[in-house]
Task: structure prediction
Amino acid sequence: MKNKLVSLSLLLILSVSACQPLMQLPESTPDLASAYMDASLPAEERAADLLARMSLDEKIGQMTQVEKNAIQPGDVTRYYIGSILSGGGGYPSSDNSPEGWAKMVDGFQSAALETPLAIPLIYGVDAVHGHSNLKGATIFPHNIGLGAANDPELVEKIGRATAEEMRATGIPWNFAPVLAVVRDVRWGRTYEAYGENTELVTNLGIAYQNGLQAAGEGDSLFVLATPKHFIGDGGTVWGTSTTENYMLDQGDTQMDEARLRELFLPPYQAAVQAGAQSVMISYSSWNGVKLHGHKYLITDVLKGELGFEGFVVSDWAGIDQVDKDYYTAVVTAINAGVDMNMVPQGYQRYLAVMKQAVENGDIPMARIDDAVLRILTVKFKLGLFEKPFSDSALLETVGSETHRALAREAVAKSLVLLQNDNAALPVPKDTPLIYVAGILANDLGAQCGGWTIEWQGKSGNLTTGTTILDAIEATATGEVRFNRFGKFDSEQKADIAIVVVGETPYAEGRGDNENPSLSENDIELINRVREQAEKVIVVLISGRPVVITEALPVTDAFVAAWLPGTEGQGVADVLFGDRPFSGKLPFTWPRTAGQLPFDFTNLPAAGCDAPLFPYGYGLDTTSSEPLNLPVCP
Ligand code: GLC
Result:
């Protein structure tokens, strides 16, 4: 019955849209002598020539981005659609391989090139820690780990490697980096950010953007970066979100303009100066006004004051949140300066509303022309008119040893040593008996986190990689025993136990958590293993600092590993001393959840009201002084 209902409603929509002046199917082929077809001309000149040849329908089509499951290639041609995206988990349902992706993306592109003016579409994806929806791709540490590593050169290489694996599948546009400066780690998107510090976020965000765009405009390896989410997405107040049961994500950032500029604007200023050509708008609000409808911030500040000449793209159905009346929402957002709408489903309604709004004079044609000119200019700069399709020569880069070695290095540099009593670390490789406990020790999905294959990520063996257990077994030369429950049923005490605990995957507001703490099960697991080993080392898998205070007294060493991705060997490299601990905390670490959100303007330096560990804290392997933490109620 449900399917029948759906098909009836679909028929209704189509019949309604058929009442509109039906988009004429394209007839002609492009005039190859046109100026816009001349690759020797500047992008701006080609775009202006092309714009002058376009109908209103063709212009509106360029301002429309549709999710790949919500449209057939034939309708990409019919409605002159300018962009398609794969959202989180948007892999080709029949074949999640590089070849399968390339076939899907090239298929949509072929349809776009059948339009009269043969304007190529631009395909976008969230390759936020590698081409992370693609099975077999190299999955790098999420940005929180890169913030701990704080190595701009490494991050630039990661951007470049990601660009190669993306272009192998025909995708020239990455909805990354996140430039959020995160002020409350209870946010489910904390791990997508580099840290709490504006300068750290700026330095690493630009490094990543430079890596993606390293090949230079027009090169087939150039991938368009998208600094996001403009602006203040990491500064919202708990309980102000109006989306689903979210508490922080998509909430309201409440502060004066001076503080908003001080905390959140520098990364975007740097991104624009470094050549950003697309920026994504935040779902969040500033003092009660949705960013998607904020003309002052989008047009006056981003485009005017910062001189941003690329195009602004909405977030997923972000425009819909601007007003309960859809027509008003669209008019407000487009007039505020949004150039492309990530609709991403029900695009015919958007097309019809846009046409109506222009004919009513509610959206000036000058605004349409400005948006389309921005979009076309970027497409010309990307070289899409000359090289619109995937490059099969790059297929071998996907999940390559070179990229995995880079990811392994990033993992090693991201680990932060929080405690190292009794010289528990490094672990001698010839330790006679090592116990490994905790399901997360053998869970590739958990160590990758959200935005991996699926939007929310998922536990288990979801792609190709090395778990932490695999890595320990490959490195230790003595006996290694694994039990997920920490029950080793042996009279024999292990010399060393490594217990892996932490968070299971989540993304966006579904990860908002008022009490980010080790679970009771994890505490019990650590205590159980404590009785069965001479020394206990805990490795924490998490997308943020979590409250671990209760566990520290019963452990010898404690390591924050964040969300390392597919290359778990990088964890063993440091645990066993092949590489030093060098990571430093990119976030202040709470002693209790009650301390959140921190008042960064008044953080006690010591005592029970102080954070457990300050921003920038991290031991190296040689330091093994006991942590003299105060005993607090
Ligand atoms: C999501 C996210 C955004 C992402 C977009 C497309 O809701 O907010 O970061 O780029 O949708 O997947």
Summary: The pocket of alpha-D-glucopyranose is lined by residues 87-88, 126, 175, 228, 315-316 (CB under 6 Å).
